[in-house]
Structure to design on (477 residues):
């Protein structure tokens, strides 16, 4: 093991570069070897055999953005818990209570989001008769 | 060890690891076809080689020879980059996974891990695997096809939703072991209760966390019952509808490589890593830990296939509700309870 601290990350970098080279070579090989007989129908977007209507650059549900925003909030919470978790045995009860307060604040936000219906996908379930 | 030897050794390890991983990927596909075939009362591959064992090689050659179609309606740079991104990040995360105790060959002590002694190994794995979502999202968007777009969006939303539960389920393990280093986490799980039950995290208070991890991992790797991104009955093939030849196969390589990584991580964090009975002559003693590690990962892969042969697919609203309204509160509760017990025991 070399003394330099950053040398420890060298194998990771090398591995990443080799994996990248490998993936690129595979794509290149397939492009070089594969036969090419394009036809108009083959080159059109796949839509179960129908003639495509427009392309896919359209609007989509805003829900996906909301999920992405919530992800950032809650993933930051999860990451914030990591250093605390590693040091918990030293922080003892004080650290536990401090984090409990933080988690309660996050949970208030979570409860708000839940009640606002951000987590409900599809149509809101309506009570049905006993069919 | 000088820096040159260090680099040469790590290059050899990288080559070996990539070879083993890609072979494992090819044969998990074979195993899956075989096992799911038997579960559905049919044979699975039998024609190429004994028991169809050469089928993965035949498939590989076929994927290379097939027409590599780049449709004119796609956004080309990202369309080509997306499968590469997916595969690269799937193959990179294996670099920090240790598979056994260090071995001594020709007087050199070699850790069985490509990047040894990283004290933030777990963070690296989480970071690299979550970058994999870019491959899926970019392929869905750049294909410029409706099925691909829907599949890509679904996959991204699903992967980031379950990542929170996955991340929180690991906090309990971190509390138990007090370190991010995977070697330390395994070391913290040595020993037994009452003389025979191993002190693995799954038996040591992290039972619930293990199942949260398991379910979140299935969703992260887009596997049944959470394989909505490629729900073939509604989305044809999801985000890789417009891909062909090797680029198509690369998404499968990425998926199976991620399954292997997730299995390795589950083994290290919850199932005691390479711990197991070690006996016999020195050579056997050196090989057995690696064997136990591989055996545990294999069990994990088999459960993956078993679940695929057993469960139907979720509906999208059920999937999101399950992730956000069940797994997330449960994992937070697990963190609080684990922390409280650990603090009170001191």
């Amino acid at each position: 093991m070399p003394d330099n601290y950053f040398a420890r990350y060298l194998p990771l970098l090398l591995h990443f570069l080799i994996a990248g080279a490998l993936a690129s070579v595979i794509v290149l090989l397939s492009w070089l070897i594969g036969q090419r007989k394009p036809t108009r129908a083959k080159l059109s977007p796949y839509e179960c055999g129908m003639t495509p209507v427009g392309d896919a650059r359209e609007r989509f549900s805003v829900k996906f953005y909301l999920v992405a925003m919530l992800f950032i909030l809650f993933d930051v919470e999860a990451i914030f818990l990591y250093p605390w978790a590693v040091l918990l045995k030293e922080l003892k009860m004080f650290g536990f209570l401090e984090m409990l307060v933080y988690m309660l604040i996050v949970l208030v936000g979570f409860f708000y989001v839940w009640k606002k219906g951000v987590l409900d996908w599809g149509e809101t379930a309506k009570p049905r008769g006993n069919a | 060890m000088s820096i040159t030897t260090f680099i040469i050794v790590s290059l050899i390890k990288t080559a070996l690891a990539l070879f083993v991983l890609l072979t494992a990927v090819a044969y998990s596909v074979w195993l899956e076809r075989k096992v799911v075939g038997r579960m559905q009362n049919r044979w699975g591959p039998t024609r190429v080689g004994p028991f169809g064992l050469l089928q993965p090689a035949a498939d590989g050659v076929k994927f290379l020879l097939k027409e590599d179609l780049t449709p004119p309606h796609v956004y080309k740079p990202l369309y080509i980059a997306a499968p590469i991104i997916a595969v690269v990040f799937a193959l990179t995360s294996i670099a920090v996974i240790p598979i056994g105790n260090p071995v001594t060959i020709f007087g050199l002590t070699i850790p069985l891990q490509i990047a040894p002694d990283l004290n933030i190994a777990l963070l690296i794995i989480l970071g690299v695997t979550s970058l994999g979502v870019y491959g899926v999202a970019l392929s869905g968007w750049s294909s410029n096809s409706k099925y691909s777009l829907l599949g890509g969006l679904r996959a991204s939303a699903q992967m980031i939703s379950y990542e929170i539960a996955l991340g929180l389920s690991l906090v309990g393990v971190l509390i138990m072991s007090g370190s991010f280093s995977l070697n330390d986490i395994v070391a913290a799980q040595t020993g037994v209760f009452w003389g025979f039950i191993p002190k693995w995290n799954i038996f040591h208070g992290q039972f619930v966390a293990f199942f949260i991890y398991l379910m979140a991992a299935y969703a992260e790797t887009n596997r049944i019952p959470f394989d909505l991104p490629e729900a073939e009955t509604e989305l044809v093939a999801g985000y890789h509808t417009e891909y062909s030849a090797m680029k198509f196969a690369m998404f499968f390589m990425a998926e199976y490589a991620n399954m292997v990584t997730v299995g390795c991580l589950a083994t290290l964090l919850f199932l005691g890593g390479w711990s197991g009975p070690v006996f016999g002559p020195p050579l056997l003693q050196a090989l057995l830990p690696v064997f136990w590690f591989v055996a545990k990962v294999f069990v994990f892969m088999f459960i993956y296939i078993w679940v695929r042969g057993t469960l139907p697919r979720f509906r999208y609203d059920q999937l999101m509700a399950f992730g956000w309204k069940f797994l997330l509160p449960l994992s937070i509760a697990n963190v609080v309870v684990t922390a409280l017990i650990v603090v009170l025991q001191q």
Chain A touches chain B through 70 residues (CB under 8 Å).
